[in-house]
Each structure stands twice: as structure tokens, then as C-alpha cells.
Amino acid sequence: MKKNEYYYQFLRAISVELASLARELEYSVFTSPRMMLTNSRTFVEDIVHRVLNTEGISDIGCSTLMDRIQLLQSQGIVPQDIQDAIHIVRKAGNDASHNTRVFRYSEALKSWEALYLLVRWYMEVYGPLSFEMPRYQEPQIEHANNYDIEEVELRLSQWQNAVLSKVTEIAGQMDSASTVKEEVTYDQSVDVPGDTKVRTITYQDNVVDVPYFLRDSFLLPQRFLKSERFMIALGGVEQARIMSELPPDLEGLSSRVKRYNETHEALLFEDLASFIEEEKERRSIMKNRPGELFIFFQSNYLIVTDKLAKTPLTNDYFKGFPNFLRQLQEDGKHSVSQLPQELVILAKYDRVGINTVEKLFEQMVSLQKQDS
């Protein structure tokens, strides 16, 4: 199986939401058996609703998954071995939802096997005639530690809600049509750990998505070129210091500090969108170049070689800002290797602005080129 592939990809032809939930179940087997067991019930619920819809059976009067399972049993539609598989998932899910004990990988794998039996039966009975069920495959254990446990929970919750929404849609349409045809769209999102959308921030008609890896990131005012002073002012009243402190809508944020208005809110939103894109780009670069020493300045970066790292921060190598160099040395920074990865932080020094920091970065780039 190739990277970023998962066993139940073929379900995308039926439902993107169901396939995506199956993907998250696979990823969580060895990360959190409890969450895998709990959310597997939603997967079963979707399949049960699809069978009822295809068979044209109304579930009016059914309020629980158990009610609908018993309705299918009464119609003689589901074979006994599939009924047993459904109950394995349902009971394990109920146990995981209410019991605080430790759940074992073997329990999650048992539900995974039961889901396979259910999906195989459903696809053989209701799937395309040309469909051939792939052989059973254990979950991919290499995915187990890729996702933070809280991110796994977030992803499962998002896709569970999407599946439940689809289930409600199917159930609501059954009164007016014996069979509901579902319009299938394909999920184009990339399954990169840390990239899960954790929230959105809006300003007027504009929206920016915040990925999981930035949910509590520090918002350094110097990174916000058009709204630095506004950010400093907000920080002074304990606002906008970290991403999670930002409100979901930036309109009205200026009312929390004096002498700022809607114009500053708009500039802050522009800077925020740029900040998120820069951070995503930086993260990608660092993942593609593991073990490297980086220095970042705004949207630019420098890979620091060993020779550059040992370069002294003196007037012999860096020209035009002796006061800046003196302050760096007084602060214990004597060589390039001791500089912060985020170079704009250095603008905090006395009579040192962003332009001076930019000159330092440009001269480091020049030295690097001379040595290459």
C-alpha cells in the first residue's frame, strides 16, 4: 500500500464521508483503541441506513441503531453472520463510550474484522456487479504514531459528524422516495498529520482555516508586518498572544484597545492569512530536510552549513550595524549558530528595526553563497 493510501479507499465511489471515516478508524486502531471502537458505531449506522434506503424500508418509529438492526432482522435481509458482526461493533462501541477501563489493540482489531465482514457483504449485495472485494488487510501500523491523540479525536469527530449528517439526509428523504441517489464528490484533502483543520477565522466575507499544528502557536507581533503595533496593543490586554486567543470573527476586535479601528482589523486578517501560509511552507520545508539547521526571515529561509554556523557575529564578517552586533554579543550570541531560528525576534533590540535584521539575513545569505 502506497503512502497516504488506506484500505477502504474504494468506498469513495459510494460516499466520501464514509470512506474518510473508515480511514480515520484505520489510523486510530493502534493510536487509540477506545476512539476507534466508539466511532465504529457511526460507520455501522451509515451502512444500516443505506440498506434500509436501498430496500425501501421506512424506519419511522426507530430511534436507535438497535431498533434499525432489529428492523432489518425482522425483514430477513441480513444473514446471521453479518448480524453477529454488527453486534460485535455495536457492543464494543457502547463499552468504549461508557467504560473507563483500558481498551486493548486486540479489541479494536476484532471490530476492524467485523467491519470488514459487514462491508464485504454490503458491497457484494448492493455494490456494482463488477466490484471485487480486496482481501482482508490489517490496519497500517505505520500510521499509528503519525497523529497526535487529540488530532485523531478531532479528525474522527469531524468525519463522524459528516457521516451522521449524511445519515440524517438519507433518512429524511426516504419518505418521498423509495431510493435516494447520493451525489458523490471526491475528497481532495491531503492526509498530512498536523494539517487537520481545527478552526476557521473570518473577517467580513473572508475566511482562513487554522491547521491543527498552529492551534496554540505563538503570534509574534514582528511576523505581522502590516499590523505589528495593533498586535502589540492587543497583547497588552491579553488578546491575540496565541492563535487560540483569537476570536472566530475578527470584526470588532479593535474595540478592545484604544486608537485602533476596522482598517487595522482588515490588515490583521491579511497578516494572519500570510502567517498561516508561511508556517505551512516552513513546516513542509523542515519535514523535507530533516536534521538541517534553518534560519527564517519572513517568507525566506536559509539552511545553515557548519561553516556558516561557526561564523563570528563581528564587524569582520557583518557590516553596517555595529550597535546591533554589540548587543548580540552582550546577550551571549557570538556566532551564527546561536541566533534564533525566527530571525525577526532580533528586532526587539534597542534601535534595531526590521530593516537591520533583514540586512543581517542578507549578509548571511551572501556568506553562504561565497562558501558554496
Class derived from helix and strand content: mainly alpha
DSSP strand count: 4
Radius of gyration from the alpha-carbon trace, in angstroms? 27 Å
| Average pLDDT, all residues | 86
Described by strand count, sense and barrel closure, the largest sheet is: 2 strands, antiparallel
Which stretches are poorly predicted, pLDDT < 50 over at least 5 residues? 175-188
* Percent in helix: 40-55%
Number of helical segments with 4 or more residues? 11
Shape: elongated
Describe this structure in words.
The chain has 372 residues and is mainly α. It folds into three domains: 118 residues, Four Helix Bundle (Hemerythrin (Met), subunit A) (Up-down Bundle); 92 residues, no CATH class; 79 residues. The chain is 48% helix and 6% strand. It is built from eleven helices and four strands. The strands form two sheets. The protein has a two-stranded antiparallel sheet. Strands 3-4 form a two-stranded antiparallel sheet. Helix 2 packs across helix 3 and helix 2 runs parallel beside helix 6. The protein is elongated. About 4% of the residues have low confidence.
